[in-house]
Structures are given as structure tokens and as C-alpha cells.
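C-alpha cells incoming
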């Protein structure tokens, strides 16, 4: 298909006027255009392979012979003849229309990158001697010469021209492939195709020997330079196979002196009609330059001119000598190296500390000889390259750059602003990898344009690129440099580079941020003149042109320190190292990789770096490096340093798990991040260490890059050293677990087999509480309280600091810790610094805003760009600025600089310490009466903050965070801490703040949702709340959480209306209004449920989305059901003599129709209005119990069978479960009224009624479902209650039990056995097995199969070598049913392991998870930690309880020796084993099937025996 497409394009091109050039495709295309010639005639020509040359030979007879009828044949011949005639009459064909003027190739140079463009016109004429140094020129078309005569013609013309130049003592160039009149425009570039270039050089050398006199042969060899082959580009800047052959002649005075050069006759080829030509041929020739041609003076009829010429040889030689001396005196010394150094660094003269933050390169077509001298581009790591060479990716600069660094290739259209600017920059990875913009096609099938067409075809899209790059919210204002790298001479005013320069000049409002680099003066002069003509400015002061590219390259590379120039190394284990290639390092753009030789050879300013750190700035690798240098005291070791480095991390590495996790919890500002980085620094030679640049990066990309770092330069070997990855400032542990899981998946996909951890995640996470969390094997807590040892180390460090620095009193970050976080010190510092605070001053306002953001948003900052705009600090042109911290005046000691990796990377400022920020808020209110509401108002209503500046997206994200982010601890907070604090400090003003927020975030659905929540929770203004809820839904359609807010508004309106209605009984009008609200709420909650299911199915398609199922719709519908019972309890229909629960229960269960109740009501006349209203909502009422029960069972199933990804229950869902429990008590009160004590004693009760009462009792105790029964073990149900339940189930099963009840009876006995093994109510184990087999042979409803197969697999799991025949089928069906029935809800969850296989027999072989917990007597956090790490299986008591099964690894599962497949709990557990490996493991039973836990190598010796 591609070939056909190419042919089609070829056919549709303009046909060459010369038939000789036509292909058979073009002949067909031509024939198809002829009137009177049928399409099938064109196809005949094509099938007969008729091309241009054969078409010229055809006759009418030939055509009729191949099947063309006579009429069309005559038309074809006539049309062909017309083309031939046109060719003769129009020698200057359309393809050779003359182009723009151009300069000839630089004289006497061979490595210049200059190339001609097809049809352009050399702007010098054929000429004779002028000043003897400026070369004369002679043009030869060289296109009508036959191949046999081509070499003869070449050598003949060169010898004639060279002899003429040498005799005239003038430099000269003869050009082959340049047209002349009459066939072409004088000087028109045609180009010729050359096969063997070396042959031309050889033939020319032979010709010199053959034609020059012996005594002059050496001089001729020296003066006549070897042929030069100058490439010819097509008009669209692509390469062609043509070239112009040029020979330079340089008759230097020291060589030619006063000599005269006679040559043997030059034969120009045979001509017809002339015989005996040798007889008339002269014996010698003497050529001179005569105007535009070479004249043989010996061929003149009179010899006087010849003799006079010989007599003046001495004068010509002297003129030549003087001309050479004059030319040499023009050469002057250059100072452009120093000029380049200043401009490229923004006057810092070092690239390590350059005032230029980012570089943009604009370049045109490169030449292969230039690429070796462009390494400086790779080291500059430009943000963006605008490349006008369409062949750059195939054989140009981009191809070279891509071999050395990472590149993202784009077309200009990608830069058109169609969405958020920073979103576009993020998709382009603009500040992560070099963005390479192909400005004249060359990728993605975009064709290049001719120079004349470029502006029309592509000019607008390239202007979009430039406008995008020059925005203040993309690249740092006045801190980036645009470098025009002129690799090919620009000679036309329509050249795209001229237009591009003009656009940058306009966008940047001047040339202070532009630097132009050419490698010769001619290229510079041409470029300068074109820019002056286009823009009216002189750019000489911003151009480098006296240095070659080799010198430019060396100059720029020398501006880096030794550290930046030197190679970097990674550890490989055993003390070996591997070179860390720059391209690989840059490709790992989400990671800051710490190398073994980090910082060595650097010249960073120690004073500045140390000061920034001690003041409160983030620690850098340089701080650790400086502390290891002679004369420095060691970096302070925190108490936990050795424990983490020498104990915890080695223990983690011993785990059989691909990716292990260690949590370093810390109070903000207590040195947690510093400690984590210190650990990395100390382990950099034993681990491949890295820090995650941004917690907002794509997790799948992070996982991929972590494994790249792990496996780098290991080829097919197993990685030698693990990766130690520090992750900082995650606000949710679930995200950490998501990342951990993706890394494990990546290890599995890459088949990285190992018996120890390959990746260690050091999760450095802030704790909101200063109280220590529960200490576990994988968690350490760093609080704001130093030990005595640590205090002593800080005292010693202070002594060293005071010797070096004068301003230690402002080293607040250090001093706060040295003072052991004493509040008195912090209060004093803040009070003294803020004495002069005034909200009328801009710098005070900016500090206050930064304080507010820092207190309520972790890691908040303000971009330098925003600060400069707000404080009117204008950056100096060009590059560099007033230091932004100074703009804060006296408050600058509270500010530290930092770099932020948002959607784009940018420089920013932040508060030096969280304690300082918190105290500032207190001080502002206490001393200056500036309240949080005032600050929030300033933040939300100041337009300057929301203008286009760098970091705008991150700023908006931080502001959004402090408004909407709620925290869940013991109970759910209704609003963010900021809103709650404002409501507490200045009640009522929070509404003003929220209204301003809604204006700032007008199109943000979450803020609209927040407004709705505020109005229904605080203001009880439900109409306004509905408005905001609907607006949120319009902005974010089909989102279950937004839909839930709409439902919550209605629910709360119902709840409020019930609470306000004091009168009882309730009046009919009120009843209708309340039931209508309830109906609307239930419908809204069902919509939420449906959307939650859709979202869940969508997440299953996306492996990286671990969000869990939104249960709020189910719980909300239950809550509304409870409210309906409250409403009905206030109506006389259901409360004539107290609340009639029995009647209400029957109606709401659908067992009693309202019409029957109405007929039998003795108070009918009084209650008739109520019945009319109740019938309007009959469907809702009759289905109420069913809907509530469905939701209760659904949520029970969800909470009981699915837990966190470590297989444990999720404690964070406890709040929802507490509310569920409250609602169930209300439900049970209505629908499960029974006297359990007398139930079994009263023998006179009707059996059916007794069965009904028994079932109500079981429902009341939440044991009418298998999940409810299993939950009894986790809820610590009293043994007596469980025994009662067992008795009730026995009663039911002795009558007419359903399949579900029989299965539940087995569950009840299993649970009871785990509570009281010798209970009188416990049925014999064999009896339960017998009942189980009986059920398995019955017709089983689909809904009951999963619980049945679970209990079957649990109880029938065989002892060694005694398999149950059908168990494999049950396991398979169970796994299928789990996926089918739980697929709505299991995303982001793991199946809970309810039981493990124990060593004993009967019931005792079932070990509940609670028994494992009791073995180690640990809290929930520690138990979850030990479970996740696998340490729990090493506990002796646990080993004594559990039975270890053996088996064989089979791809993704294990075949147990009992003959059944078992799935590993985590797939990475078997990644270290080849198929067929013998392993041992424990078995856990979950609803997904039997799971293998603690998989290890099978130990030799007797197998574990059952007791």
C-alpha cells in the first residue's frame, strides 16, 4: 500500500517537459489526462511498461499492435509530438525556473557547510581578473555531455581555465553544473549527478601532468586545487543526488613568481565534418583571462598581444604580491570568545551558576562535518529546538542529538493553545526532555515546503510555537536565551529563519535575549543584512561569527566545572562501577539519581549553599559533600540514622518481595527529609539511589524508570544492587501502595527474578500529629524533640558555624532544632521580625499569603515569576534579576529559595520552617489584627496572583487544596481545616471566603460541590445548595461523588424538615412533601450507585487506577430508608396506639398492601387523606425493606470480604461502617422484632410463625448472610450469642431450610468452633462434611454458589495424597464467580484471608486470622506491617499453628502436592523461581480461592505432619 501511495504522489507531481525522464507511471498519468483517450488505453501502456524513452519511439502501428484502436493511437502520437515540440521551443522548463540570488561557495575551502539550492542564481558573473584576490568565475552547465565525454570535457575546461588564471595571476573558480545563457539564466544552479568522485580528482591530476610543461608541473599541482563537490538541495531544503563540481585556482606569488605557463593543446572532443584536425592543431597554447572567458593568445593572428603580455610578467607578479600583503593585513585578532562566554551565561562566566536558566535553539540545515563540534548543545540541554532541516531526524542534528540525549519530537501544531498552557507543556514534557520542533516537516508524514511557500504553509504554526515559549507561565521571564545557530548560510529574505527571528524579536521586545552564532563572516554578513532589512535593527552586538564551531564548542564546554564535565558512575556491586550515560540519565526524568561520585570536582559556592540550608532551605547533596571535606565537622547523625542504615534497610532487603516499603514519618520541620537524604548519601555506593522529583508524576512512568535504573547496564544478568528510592511529601499512603504495586508489576513484566528485594521505597511522609505513631518494623517516627545526644551534636555544630558565618542569628532552620523546638524561641523570632508588618505594603501582603498557604498546604510555594510581578521587581535585561528574597524586605529571613517540579519546572520561594509559618498566623492576628479570613480574601480577590506567570497551575492547585481538602481521623471533618478555622475565628466570614472561591474557581466542579455542602450543612439553605450541586454536575458529568452531593442535599433537606416538624401526628400536606423529598433522594442515590459501578468497570480497564468503589450511594439510600420510617412513625396510620411496627414492617416489606390496610382501618374516615398520599408513593414504600436489605448485604459483602492490598481490613472505612451499624439498628427495630428468649421455649407457637420469628432473629443479629456470619469472628461476638445463633439455625435446618440457610448453618458451626471448640451447640465435623456434600449435589442458585464453593474448598481441602475429586472444579468455579460477582467492587482491594490451613484436624485445622493476631499481640498497624513484609510467618507461635504445604511452580501459579492449583497472594512471590521449582508455602482461604502465602524454597526433610 505504501508503494502505491508513493506512485500516486509521483504521478501527481508536475511532469517533466523532457519525455526521457518519464516513468511508466507518469506515462499512464499523462495518457489519463488526454481528451478522447479512454482510461483502458492508459492501462494498456502501463501493462506494456511504456516509459518516456519508449514512448518517443512508438508509431501508430506499434500502438495498434498492442491493442490500442486506431483513433486513440493517432491522438497519442499527436499529443507526444506536441510535448516534444514544446520542449524544443521552451528550453527553460518549469522545473528550472530561476530562483533567488545566492553567494558562491567560499573560495578555497573544503569543509564549509555551504550548499546550493536548486535553481538559485549565483550573484557573481563570469569575469576576468579584478583585484587578483577576489576569484574570477566561469560556469559550465555540464548537463548535455555524454557519459563517455564527461571526464574529457571536465579536464579540458579546468586546464584551460587554470592556465588562464595562473598566467593572469588571479584567483579563480570554475563551476560545473551552473547554467548560462541561452538555455538557462546566467549563474543558475543546475547540479550534476556524479558517480565516482575520486575519478575526477585522479583524472585532473593526470591532465595537469599531460598538459603543463615539465618544469611547471609542480607549480600547477599546487595552484590547481582538487575538485570540490558542493551539494545541491531541493527547493524544500531536502537533499538531492546532484552537486556542483568546483575547482579553485590559487596562483600565489611565491609559487608562480614571473613564470608564464604554456600548455599542450587541449582537445575538446571530436566534431563531425572535420578531417585531419591534427594538421591544424597548434603545438602550444597560452591562455589568459579575458573578461568572462579564457583566451588563447597564441591562436591570435597577430603575436604582438602575446609578446606584450610576456613582457609585463614582472609587473603582474608584483601586483599579485601586493594584493596578497594587503589581504593579510586585514586579518585582526578576535575577542569574541570572551563575548560568547558572557552572553551564554548571562554575565556569570560559568554555566554551573549561569544567570540563564533555560535555552531555546533555532537552527537550519546542518552538514555532517559540523556535528562533531556541536557537543555543547547536548550539555546545554536546551528546553526546545526549532529545527528547519526536514532531514534532521534522518541525517542531521536531531539524529546526532538523539544519540547523546533524550528528545521528544513534535510538529508545531502541538503548541497551539487549545487547553491549559501548563497542561500542554506537561504533555510535551517541556522542562523534562528537549522538545524538538520540526518547523519544516520531516516527521509524521508532513512534507517540507519550499522557501517561497513556507510562510504560507507553516509560518502561522511556528509563530504559535514561539508565542507559547515566550509566555511568562511557560519559560522564566527574562531568564532564557534564544540561540540562532546558523549552520547553513541564510541568503534569502523569505528564509524561514528570518521570519522566526522577527517573531522572537517581537515577542521578547528586543534582542537582549537573542544570541546568533555563525562560523564565518560571510554567513554573518548575509544574516545581519537580512535582519536589518526585515526588522530595521543592527544585530552585530548579539552575534558570534569570528569563531569556528570547533572554537565555539570548546569555549562553551570550558564554562562547565570539572564536576559537570566529568563522567558519572553508578554502583554495580562488589565495589565495581558503571558509567552512567547522559542520555540514560536524562531519560529518567522523574528521578534525581544520586551517583557514586556525586559532587566530586564541583566548584559550587559553599557559603551560599550552607547558608540556605541553615536558614531553613532544603538540604542538597552538596551539604553532605562539604561536611566530608577536610576541616569540616561531620554531618549531624540523627539517633535513627544508624538504625535505618544498618538494621532496617538490610532487613527489608532480605525479604522475598520485589519492592519493599519503609516509612519515615516526621513532624514538619524536624529534619525528616534531611535524615532520609543522609541515609541515601551514605548508601550511594551500595544502592542505586534516587529521589522522586514530583509526587504528581505518572506512577506507571515512575515504575518504568525505576526498573530502567535497576537493570541499567546489566544486559541479561540479574541486577547486582537494589534501587533505593526516596519519595517525599505524599499526602496519602494509598498512593505509596499504588506506586509499590506498579513497581512490583513492572518487575514481573520484565521477568526480574530474585530471592531478595530489588527496590526499596523510603517513604518520607509528614505526620499531622506530633505524637509518635505506633512503631513498626517498617515505620520510624521522627518527632520535634531532640535527644540529649542530638542536642550535644547541634551545640558542637553551632560552634563551627559561628567561626565561618557572621549572620548565624538568622539561621532559623538550624536554631529551631538546636533550641529543641522551644515555642518561646519561635514566638520571639516571629514577634521581632513582624514588628514593622503592615498590610498596606505589598511585600507584607505577599508574606502573609505565603504563610497562609504554607500552614494549610504542605510544600506550598510561590514562583519567583509571580513574586516579581506582584512586587514589581523587574528582571534586568538580559538574564539575572534583583534577588527575589530581597523583595520581601525585613521578612526575607523567613524566605528560602527552592526549585519546584510542577507541570513545568520553576524557581520558587517558600517559608523556611512550618513552625515559623504557624506562629506568623498567630502573631498577625494577635498583634496586627489580621485574621485568616482577611488573608483568604486577599488571596482569592487579588487578580495579580492569577495572571499568567510560571507555576500558575501549582499555585491554583495549592489554593484549591486549602479550600477543599478535608482530613479523616476519628470522624469525618465537614470542611477543610482553613474553612473550619475561619468559621471558628470569625463566624460567618467563611461564607464570604467561599463566595470568593466560587468566583476564582468558577468552572471547578469540586468548588461548586464545596459550596453545595456548605449551604446544606451550615446554612441549611437547600435551594442554594441545590443550585451549586447542579452546577457541579453540569461541570463534571457522570461522576459518582458529584452525583452523591446532589443526593446528600435532598437527604439533608428531608432530615431538616423532619427535625423541624414538631407536631404529631404529621399533617397530610407535610407527609406528601416529605415523601416526595425521600423519593427524590432515593432516586438520586441510585443514580450515584449506577455511576459508581460504571466508574468501577472503567477502572478495571486501567491498570494504574487503584481507586476503590464509591459506597456512598448505597449508604445514602439506607439512610433515606431510615428517615422514611421516622416519617411514617409520625402518621396516625402507623401510630394510633404507639408506633405499630408490625403493620409498618408488613407494608414496607410488601407483605401488606395499603388498600387492604385501608379497608381494615377502623379510623378510615379520619385517616383517608393519609392513605391517598401513601398510595402515591406505594412503589417506594412496598420496596423499602427490599432495597435497604439489598444495600446492607452488598455493603457487608464489600467490607467483610475485601480489604487493603495487604489482605487486611481497611480501618479507614470504619466511619462508614459505624453509620451502617446505626442504620441497621433502626432497620432491625422495624423489621426484626422478636423475643429471642421465649422463642424456643414456647412450644405452642405455630411452627411457621416460629420459623418466621427465628429468621427475623437471625436477620436482627446480621447472621442471615455468610458475610455477616464470617464477620462475627472479627467483631468479637460473645460466645453465648453465637451459641444462640447455632440453636436457631439448627431449628431452621430441621424444618424447611433453603439452600442458603443450609450453607449458613455450616458457616455458623465453623465460626462457633473457632470461638468455643467444645460447645454443646457445635455440630460434629463429619456431619457438616456430610451436609456439605449433600448441598453440593443439589441444584444451587447462582447467588449462593460463591459462599458454597468457599466453604467447600475450606472444609474439603485434602490432607497430603488424599485428594477430593471435585475440589479442582470448585476452585476454578470459585475464582470465576469471584471475578463475576465482585468485579464491581474489587478494584484497589485485595480479598481478605478469612482462614489459614492449620496443622490439626477437623475444625482445628481452620486457623482464623484473629488467632494469628493473638499470637503476636500487636496493634493493627504493626500487624498490617508484619503481614505486608512477611515477618509474621517467621514468628514461632505462628509457625506452630500453620501447616506448610509443598508444591511446584507453574507459570503464574503453584501446583500443590495435593494436586490443585494455588494462586500466590502476590504474583511477585514466585518471580524468583523458574517453572518446575519445588516450593513450600502456607495456604490462606479467601473468596478469590486458595492463596499461597510465604512462598519459600522447599526444605529437605520430612514434610509437616497433621496432628
Amino acid at each position: 500500500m505504501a508503494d502505491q501511495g508513493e506512485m500516486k504522489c509521483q504521478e501527481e507531481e508536475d511532469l517533466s517537459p523532457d519525455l526521457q525522464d518519464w516513468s511508466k507511471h507518469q506515462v499512464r498519468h499523462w495518457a489519463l489526462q488526454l481528451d478522447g483517450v479512454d482510461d483502458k488505453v492508459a492501462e494498456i501502456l502501463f501493462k506494456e511498461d511504456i516509459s518516456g524513452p519508449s514512448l518517443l519511439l512508438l508509431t501508430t502501428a506499434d500502438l495498434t499492435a498492442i491493442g490500442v484502436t486506431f483513433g486513440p493511437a493517432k491522438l497519442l502520437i499527436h499529443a507526444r509530438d506536441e510535448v516534444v515540440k514544446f520542449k524544443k521551443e521552451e528550453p527553460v522548463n518549469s522545473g528550472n525556473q530561476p530562483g533567488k540570488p545566492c553567494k558562491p561557495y567560499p573560495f578555497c575551502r573544503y569543509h564549509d557547510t555551504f550548499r546550493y539550492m536548486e535553481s538559485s542564481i549565483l550573484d557573481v558573473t563570469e569575469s576576468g581578473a579584478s583585484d587578483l584576490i577576489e576569484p574570477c568565475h566561469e560556469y559550465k552547465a555540464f548537463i548535455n555531455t555524454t557519459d563517455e565525454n564527461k571526464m574529457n570535457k571536465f579536464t579540458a575546461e579546468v586546464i584551460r581555465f587554470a592556465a588562464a588564471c595562473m598566467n593572469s595571476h588571479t584567483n579563480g573558480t570554475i563551476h560545473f553544473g551552473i547554467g548560462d545563457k541561452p538555455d538557462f539564466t546566467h549563474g543558475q544552479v543546475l547540479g550534476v549527478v556524479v558517480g565516482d568522485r575520486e575519478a575526477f580528482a585522479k583524472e585532473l591530476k593526470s591532465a595537469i601532468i599531460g598538459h603543463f610543461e615539465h618544469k611547471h608541473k609542480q607549480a600547477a599541482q599546487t595552484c590547481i586545487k582538487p575538485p570540490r563537490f558542493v551539494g545541491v538541495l531541493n527547493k524544500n531544503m531536502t537533499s538531492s543526488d546532484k552537486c556542483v563540481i568546483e575547482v579553485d585556482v590559487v596562483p600565489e606569488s611565491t609559487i608562480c613568481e614571473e613564470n608564464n605557463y604554456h600548455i599542450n593543446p587541449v582537445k575538446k572532443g571530436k566534431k563531425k565534418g572535420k578531417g585531419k584536425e591534427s594538421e591544424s592543431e597548434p603545438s602550444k597554447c597560452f591562455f589568459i583571462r579575458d573578461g568572462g572567458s579564457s583566451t588563447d593568445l597564441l591562436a591570435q593572428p597577430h603575436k604582438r598581444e602575446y609578446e606584450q603580455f610576456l613582457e609585463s610578467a614582472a609587473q603582474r607578479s608584483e601586483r599579485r604580491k601586493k594584493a596578497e600583503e594587503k589581504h593579510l593585513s586585514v586579518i585582526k585578532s578576535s575577542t569574541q570568545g570572551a563575548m560568547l562566554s558572557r552572553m551564554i551565561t548571562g554575565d556569570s562566566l560559568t554555566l554551573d551558576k549561569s544567570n540563564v536558566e533555560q535555552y531555546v535553539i533555532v537552527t537550519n540545515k546542518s552538514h555532517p562535518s559540523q556535528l562533531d563540534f556541536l557537543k555543547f548543545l547536548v550539555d546545554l540541554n536546551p528546553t526546545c529546538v526549532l529545527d528547519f532541516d526536514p532531514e534532521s531526524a534522518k541525517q542531521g542534528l536531531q539524529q546526532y542529538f538523539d544519540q547523546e540525549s533524550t528528545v521528544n519530537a513534535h510538529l508545531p501544531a502541538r503548541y497551539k493553545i487549545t487547553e491549559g498552557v501548563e497542561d500542554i507543556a506537561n504533555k510535551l514534557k517541556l522542562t523534562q526532555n528537549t522538545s524538538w520542533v520540526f518547523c519544516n516537516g520531516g516527521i509524521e508524514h508532513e512534507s517540507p515546503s519550499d522557501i517561497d511557500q513556507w510562510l504560507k504553509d507553516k509560518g502561522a504554526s511556528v509563530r504559535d510555537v514561539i508565542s507559547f515559549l515566550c509566555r511568562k507561565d511557560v519559560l522564566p521571564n527574562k531568564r532564557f536565551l534564544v540561540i540562532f545557530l546558523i549552520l547553513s548560510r541564510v541568503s534569502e529574505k523569505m528564509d524561514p529563519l528570518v521570519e522566526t527571528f522577527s517573531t522572537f524579536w517581537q515577542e521578547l521586545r528586543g534582542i537582549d535575549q537573542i544570541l546568533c552564532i555563525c562560523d564565518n563572516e560571510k554567513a554573518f554578513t548575509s544574516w545581519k543584512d537580512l535582519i536589518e532589512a526585515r526588522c530595521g535593527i543592527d544585530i552585530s552586538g548579539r552575534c558570534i561569527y569570528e569563531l569556528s564551531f570547533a572554537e565555539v564548542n570548546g569555549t562553551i564546554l570550558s564554562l562547565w566545572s570539572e564536576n559537570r564535565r566529568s563522567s558519572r558512575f553508578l554502583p554495580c556491586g562488589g565495589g565495581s562501577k558503571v558509567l552512567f550515560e547522559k542520555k540514560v540519565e536524562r531519560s529518567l526524568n522523574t528521578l534525581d539519581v544520586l551517583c557514586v561520585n556525586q559532587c566530586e570536582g564541583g566548584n559550587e559556592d559553599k557559603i551560599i549553599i550552607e547558608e540556605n540550608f541553615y536558614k531553613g532551605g532544603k538540604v542538597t547533596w552538596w551539604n553532605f559533600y562539604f561536611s566530608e571535606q577536610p576541616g569540616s565537622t561531620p554531618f549531624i547523625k540523627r539517633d535513627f540514622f544508624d538504625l535505618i542504615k544498618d538494621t532496617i534497610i538490610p532487613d527489608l532487603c532480605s525479604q522475598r518481595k520485589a519492592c519493599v516499603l519503609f516509612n519515615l514519618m516526621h513532624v514538619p520541620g524536624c529534619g525528616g527529609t534531611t535524615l532520609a537524604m543522609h541515609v541515601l548519601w551514605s548508601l550511594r555506593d551500595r544502592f542505586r539511589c534516587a529521589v522522586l522529583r514530583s509526587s504528581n508524576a505518572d506512577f506507571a512512568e515512575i515504575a518504568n524508570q525505576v526498573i530502567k535504573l535497576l537493570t541499567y547496564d546489566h544486559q541479561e544478568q540479574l541486577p547486582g544492587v537494589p534501587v533505593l528510592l526516596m519519595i517525599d511529601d505524599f499526602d496519602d499512603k494509598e498512593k505509596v501502595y499504588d506506586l509499590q504495586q506498579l513497581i512490583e508489576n513492572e518487575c514481573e513484566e520484565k521477568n526480574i527474578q530474585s530471592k531478595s528485594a530489588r527496590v526499596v521505597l523510603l517513604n518520607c511522609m509528614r505526620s499531622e500529629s506530633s505524637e509518635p505513631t505506633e512503631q513498626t518494623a517498617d515505620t520510624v517516627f521522627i518527632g520535634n524533640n531532640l535527644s540529649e545526644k542530638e542536642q550535644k551534636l547541634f551545640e558542637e555544630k553551632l560552634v563551627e558555624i559561628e567561626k565561618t558565618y557572621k549572620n548565624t542569628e538568622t539561621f532559623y532552620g538550624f536554631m529551631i532544632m538546636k533550641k529543641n523546638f522551644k515555642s518561646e524561641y519561635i514566638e520571639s523570632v516571629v514577634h521581632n521580625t513582624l514588628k514593622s508588618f503592615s498590610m498596606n505594603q505589598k511585600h507584607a501582603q505577599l508574606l502573609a499569603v505565603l504563610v497562609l498557604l504554607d500552614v494549610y498546604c504542605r510544600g506550598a510555594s510561590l514562583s519567583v515569576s509571580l513574586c516579581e510581578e506582584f512586587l514589581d521587581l523587574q528582571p534586568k535585561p538580559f538574564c539575572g534579576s534583583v534577588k527575589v528574597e530581597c523583595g520581601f524586605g525585613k521578612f526575607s529571613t523567613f524566605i528560602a529559595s527552592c526549585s519546584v517540579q510542577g507541570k513545568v519546572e520553576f524557581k520558587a520561594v517558600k517559608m523556611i520552617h512550618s513552625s515559623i509559618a504557624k506562629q506568623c498566623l498567630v502573631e498577625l492576628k494577635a498583634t496586627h489584627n489580621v485574621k485568616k479570613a482577611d488573608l483568604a480574601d486577599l488571596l482569592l480577590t487579588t487578580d495579580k496572583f492569577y495572571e499568567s506567570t510560571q507555576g500558575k497551575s501549582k499555585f491554583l492547585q495549592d489554593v484549591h487544596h486549602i479550600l477543599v481538602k478535608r482530613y479523616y481521623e476519628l470522624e469525618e471533618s465537614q470542611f477543610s481545616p482553613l474553612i473550619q478555622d475561619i468559621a471558628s475565628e470569625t463566624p460567618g466570614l467563611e461564607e464570604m471566603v467561599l463566595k470568593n472561591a466560587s468566583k476564582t474557581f468558577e468552572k471547578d466542579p469540586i468548588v461548586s460541590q464545596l459550596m453545595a455542602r456548605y449551604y446544606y450543612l451550615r446554612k441549611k439553605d437547600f435551594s442554594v445548595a441545590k443550585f451549586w450541586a447542579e452546577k457541579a454536575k453540569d461541570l463534571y458529568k457522570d461522576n459518582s461523588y458529584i452525583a452523591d452531593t446532589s443526593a446528600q442535599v435532598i437527604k439533608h433537606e428531608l432530615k431538616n424538615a423532619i427535625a423541624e416538624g414538631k407536631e404529631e401526628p404529621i399533617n397530610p400536606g407535610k407527609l406528601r412533601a416529605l415523601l416526595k423529598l425521600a423519593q427524590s433522594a432515593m432516586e438520586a442515590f441510585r443514580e450515584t450507585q449506577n455511576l459508581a459501578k460504571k466508574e468501577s468497570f472503567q477502572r478495571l480497564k486501567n491498570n494504574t487506577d487503584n481507586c476503590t468503589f464509591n459506597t456512598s450511594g448505597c449508604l445514602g439510600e439506607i439512610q433515606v430508608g431510615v428517615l422514611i420510617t421516622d416519617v411514617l412513625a409520625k402518621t396516625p396510620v402507623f401510630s394510633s396506639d404507639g408506633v405499630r411496627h408490625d403493620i409498618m414492617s408488613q407494608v414496607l416489606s410488601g407483605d401488606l398492601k395499603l388498600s387492604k390496610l385501608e379497608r381494615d382501618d377502623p379510623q378510615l374516615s379520619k385517616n383517608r387523606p393519609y392513605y391517598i398520599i401513601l398510595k402515591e408513593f406505594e412503589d417506594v414504600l412496598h420496596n423499602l425493606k427490599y432495597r435497604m436489605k439489598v444495600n446492607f448485604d452488598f455493603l457487608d459483602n464489600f467490607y467483610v470480604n475485601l480489604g487493603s492490598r495487604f489482605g487486611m481490613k481497611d480501618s479507614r472505612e470504619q466511619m462508614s461502617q459505624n453509620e451502617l451499624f446505626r442504620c441497621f439498628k433502626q432497620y432491625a427495630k422495624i423489621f426484626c422484632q422478636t423475643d429471642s428468649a421465649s422463642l424456643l421455649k414456647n412450644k405452642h407457637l405455630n411452627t411457621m410463625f416460629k420459623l418466621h420469628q427465628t429468621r427475623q432473629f437471625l436477620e436482627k443479629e446480621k447472621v442471615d448472610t455468610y458475610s455477616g456470619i464470617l464477620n462475627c469472628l472479627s467483631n468479637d461476638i460473645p460466645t453465648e450469642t453465637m451459641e444462640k445463633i447455632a440453636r436457631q439455625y439448627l431449628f431452621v435446618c430441621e424444618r424447611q431450610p433453603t439452600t442458603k440457610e443450609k450453607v449458613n448453618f455450616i458457616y455458623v458451626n465453623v465460626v462457633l468452633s473457632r470461638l468455643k471448640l467444645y460447645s454443646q451447640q457445635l455440630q460434629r465435623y463429619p456431619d457438616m462434611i456430610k451436609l456439605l456434600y449433600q448441598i453440593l449435589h443439589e441444584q444451587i442458585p447462582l447467588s449462593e454458589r460463591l459462599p458454597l464453593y468457599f466453604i467447600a474448598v475450606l472444609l474439603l481441602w485434602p490432607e497430603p495424597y488424599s485428594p477430593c475429586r471435585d475440589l479442582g472444579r470448585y476452585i476454578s468455579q470459585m475464582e470465576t464467580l469471584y471475578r463475576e460477582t465482585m468485579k464491581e467492587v474489587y478494584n484497589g482491594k485485595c480479598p481478605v484471608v478469612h482462614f489459614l490451613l492449620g496443622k490439626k484436624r477437623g475444625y482445628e485445622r481452620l486457623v482464623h486470622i484473629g488467632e494469628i493476631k493473638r499470637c503476636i499481640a500487636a496493634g493493627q498497624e504493626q500487624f498490617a506491617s508484619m503481614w505486608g513484609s512477611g515477618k509474621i510467618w517467621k514468628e514461632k507461635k505462628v509457625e506452630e499453628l500453620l501447616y506448610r504445604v509443598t508444591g511446584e511452580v507453574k507459570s503464574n501459579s503453584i501446583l500443590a502436592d495435593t494436586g490443585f492449583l494455588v494462586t500466590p497472594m502476590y504474583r511477585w512471590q514466585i518471580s524468583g523461581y523458574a517453572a518446575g521449582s519445588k516450593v513450600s508455602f502456607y495456604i490462606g482461604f479467601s473468596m478469590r480461592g486458595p492463596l499461597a502465602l510465604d512462598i519459600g524454597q522447599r526444605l529437605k526433610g520430612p514434610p509437616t505432619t497433621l496432628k
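note: Residues 227 and 247 are 5 Å apart (CA to CA).
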